[in-house]
From TrEMBL:
Any Pfam family matching the protein: Sushi
PROSITE patterns: SUSHI (PS50923)
Keywords linked to the UniProt accession: Disulfide bond, Glycoprotein, Heparin-binding, Repeat, Secreted, Signal, Sushi
Protein source organism: Oryzias latipes
Lineage: Eukaryota, Metazoa, Chordata, Craniata, Vertebrata
SUPFAM superfamilies: Complement control module/SCR domain
Record protein name field: Beta-2-glycoprotein 1
Function text: Binds to various kinds of negatively charged substances such as heparin, phospholipids, and dextran sulfate. May prevent activation of the intrinsic blood coagulation cascade by binding to phospholipids on the surface of damaged cells.
GO terms for cellular component: extracellular region
Primary site of residence: secreted
InterPro entries for this protein: Compl-Cell_Adhes-Reg, Sushi/SCR/CCP_sf, Sushi_2, Sushi_SCR_CCP_dom
Subcellular location as annotated: Secreted
Sushi domain: residues covered: 37-97, 98-155, 156-218, 219-278
Disulfide bridge map: 39-82, 126-153, 221-264
UniProt-listed CDD domains: CCP
Length: 364
């Protein structure tokens, strides 16, 4: 009470001095009170947001923390308070990005991604021969779901294969309806006796089309000729259709070499014709031979000849060791070439001492 009066009296006596003092007191009080008691706007993690745009807060003021869109809170507390010393209370409040469910790859396709958290992206691709039905990308949204449903990979469709005139196609798999799909193949055939010209195999391609269609054409071969020492199953002097055949055989002891049947081919020619090969007369006497696994006198060889490509063995002598060994020789189209080591005995030597024959010596 006394101080108030004295101040007032001071004012009456020296008003200018009072006003200067009064202004100084007000400034000092305001500066010291505001600086020590207010909290500046807190520095928070980038994913945490404040509703207020205020930059200074009085002691006792509480701020509620929240997460930005696409993020979810963990730990706490979710509120901080400005203390009287101008500091905010401590918190472990954090915001982590929301996670979308792990996607499944599409059937016949693949997906590529680095993570499944908010704003992550998935890229979808399809295997060769399949096209993407749906979006090729998806983004993880703020609500924890993908922006688009997973696409499908659908097989490329070709329709039914084109059929050549007088032809057909046999598919590798069962085909239902009027659609075929990438990878399905088939084999073309022509109605007999027409011949197929072009690729007999076809497949539904990646661009949704079939390969070039082959053609069915008439093909004939001239009447075939007979072979020497042989006969044929059909001696008609006419043109033969594609894939018609004629069979051959040989007379007597002649042997057929090659295929016994020739076929009219796509190029209008016959397949390779066989031939008849002659037997080989065995013109040696007075010795033993090996023939068909049996050791026998040459005189016991009933036909006095062996057939083409048959083998008999004659005996030669090793003069150093005084022993014998068998040497095989083969009949080739009437020719039988004996080895140089073979010695045909004289009739006198054979009759007088058959034990001296090379075949009767000890085997080497």
């Amino acid at each position: 009470m006394d101080r108030t009066v004295s101040v007032f009296q001071l004012k009456m006596e020296d008003g200018a001095t009072f006003f200067l003092l009064s202004s100084l007191l007000l400034f000092t009080s305001g500066a010291s009170g505001d600086d020590n008691a207010t909290c500046v706007r807190p520095i928070l993690d980038a994913n945490i947001e404040l509703v207020s745009d205020q930059r200074h807060f009085s002691p006792g003021v509480a701020i509620a923390l929240s997460c930005k869109q696409g993020y979810t809170p963990v730990s706490g507390p979710r509120r901080i308070v400005c203390t009287i010393d101008g500091m905010w209370t401590k918190t472990r409040y954090m915001c982590i990005p929301k996670r979308c469910p792990y996607p499944d790859p599409p059937s016949n396709g693949e997906l590529h991604y680095e993570d499944t958290v908010y704003l992550s992206t998935i890229n979808y691709t399809c295997n060769e021969g399949y096209t993407l039905d749906g979006s090729s990308t998806a983004v993880c949204q703020a609500n924890g779901t993908w922006s688009t449903p997973a696409p499908e990979c659908k097989a490329v469709s070709c329709g039914l294969a084109p059929i050549p005139q007088f032809g057909m196609i046999i598919y590798d798999k069962m085909v239902r309806g009027n659609q075929t799909y990438f990878g399905i193949g088939g084999t073309y055939r022509c109605l007999p006796p027409l011949a197929l010209f072009g690729n007999p195999r076809a497949e539904c391609t990646i661009n949704g089309t079939w390969a070039e269609t082959p053609e069915c054409r008439v093909v004939t071969c001239p009447p075939p000729e007979n072979i020497e020492k042989g006969y044929m199953s059909n001696e008609d002097r006419r043109d033969f259709d594609f894939r018609e055949s004629v069979k051959y055989g040989c007379e007597g002891d002649y042997v057929l070499e090659g295929n016994m049947e020739i076929v009219c081919q796509q190029n209008g020619n016959w397949s390779e014709m066989p031939s008849c090969k002659a037997p080989c007369p065995v013109g040696i006497q007075g010795v033993k031979i090996q023939y068909r696994g049996e050791k026998m006198w040459i005189a016991d060889l009933k036909t006095k000849a062996i057939l083409h490509k048959e083998i008999l063995s004659v005996y030669c002598k090793d003069t150093v060791r005084n022993c014998s060994y068998a040497v095989p020789v083969q009949c080739l189209d009437g020719g039988l070439r004996l080895p140089e080591c073979f010695e045909e005995p004289s009739v006198i030597g054979y009759n007088s001492n058959s034990t001296s024959l090379h075949s009767e010596l000890q085997q080497c």
